[in-house]
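Batch 3, record 17
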Amino acid sequence: MGKVKQKDLILYSGLIILGLAAPYLFSAFKVQLTYLCVLIVLAMTWNLQGGEMGYNSFGNILFYGLGMYLTASVQVGMFFPLAEWTESGGEKTFVHTTAQYFQGIGVGLLVAAIVPTIVAGAIGYAILGLRGHYFAICTLGLGIAAGEIAGGIEIIGAGQGFTTPPFPAEIVDPEARGQFFYFLSFLVLVLAFVFVKYIYGSRFRLILNAIRDNEDKAEAMGIQTMKYKIVGWMCSAFFCGLAGGIMGGLIGYIDSTDVAFDGREMGVFMVLMAILGGKGTLWGPIIGATLFHFFKEGLWTFILGWQYVALGVLIVVIVVYFPEGLMGWLREKYPDKFGEVIDEKDRKAQVELK
Amino acid sequence: MDLLIFQAPILMVQASLDGILLGILFALIAYGMALQWGVMNIINIAQGDLVILGGYIAYTMYLVGIHPAWGVIVSPIIMYFVGWALYKLVINKVVDRDLFISILATFGIAIVFQQLMNFVFGADVVVAQSEYGTTMLFDNSVTLPNSKIFAAFISVIYAIGLVIYMKKSRLGRAIRATAQNARAAKILGVDTEKVYAATFGINAALCGVAGALISITLTLHPYVGLPYTVRSFMIVIVAGLGNLPAVAISGMGLGLFEEFADYILGTEFRIGAVFMLLVFILVYRRFKLSKKREYLK
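Prediction for the assembled complex:
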């Protein structure tokens, strides 16, 4: 990767300052901004294996949901009996103190990041041996199966859902909850960006691209493709789990199929956002997620009830007419300018590969 | 084991009969999927939603006072045109593309269909009463709704009819030619565009029949389409494309699996079990093929 260029430095510091100032500038939209951060993280990490590795997964929602349930379970289970908590449903018999709440969510997020990563590693060998559409359908099945199974397990609330611990009542500042979750998600976003950016400058990314372009040849060249595929998927799982944990705390209520393993919303969103922005680019998923979020929040309220119809039509239009996404379209239109915006070395390397 | 099914072995007979009759219905849907997969090389995630739409057509007939069994004739006719329109609008643009694009595009179509059905027919679970009564077997210990027998019977008739049609008719021959080699068929004067539209229409019509049968045997709900898609996908990958006896047998096998899973794991895990079976089948085949250094294509 080398040194960070001056221009990039200005861009990044500008974005970070904007990110830090955002909850104060747009204090009414803190929840929306948190959503945006989470969406960007999901799109960016989906892109890592969907766009770079060419393994289009519908099942990253599995890690997201897993992270969500794990965070909440750990947060409750550390201090109180979990079964009684979920059984009492909305009626709170136990109250977290401030310290307990933050300890719980901290440990919970840690678990939510690690366990999905391990799960991805464990099932990776079996699942990633499937290619193309078989992988897509298999992961779709995994995501939905997880939702159905979680909906039948009593200790995590089964069909009636799981209320996550409410934000400690001792903190009276009404802004505090929104700010806490925003900065948490922003931190994860920065982490994810730095990580993905690092991967974009590394040999690992070239290997992933080799797998995408021709897996058999990559294997023939002596690359242990399975190992890299699993690592690539584990990277996605790590951030999906974290994102899920944050969303669980933010929403405050976990339902097995409508919130956690929400293949109809989040599961599709992350694929759609990455494609909208442009698969296989660093900035594509970020731009795609931002555009998508603005579109969604702007239109959802005007077309109440019709939002899923609009979503379905949007999917069809994007997939059929813009499969290369915004960045792909720009790249075709202004190849010269594009080379300067994106890391020159990466582009050259890509051209050479082609 | 204190499970009910092991205490009362007669339930096994019940589950087996239910499963086989249900499996024939699944096989009909799977046959449609195999047809369009083989001919057009697309995977249609909206398959299950076409089934449910077909079911709602029969249910609408039931609401206006016509016997829902007539749906097995009316529904495929309407669904043929729905399928044809769908092809002209969206599918023709994804036929020659990457399979992932067809998966995602049809996923979008599925969402639109679900939501539109939710608007028109409401989010309640509905069923069209056929009032065919039930058959009691084995000293009244096994109950078999006549509607299920009727459904299996109609499915078999339609499947056989379609096989004969594909073998004998001009369009059937054109469809088979296109499936073998689209380019060669085009050179020899087959209008492949028409063939594709007809194939998708026939697939939708089969879904319509299956949906009408489901409306009288099982229940309808706008959001239960996806399990039907996955079931038919599973049957197709087990049986292979264009092997009708295998499709029928693996359909029945799936039906049996589901009924037994229902008794053993509990009804709340039924759909979960179907999806897990999909994962297991794919992983099993993957390991089997990887011994020969191959992978699922």
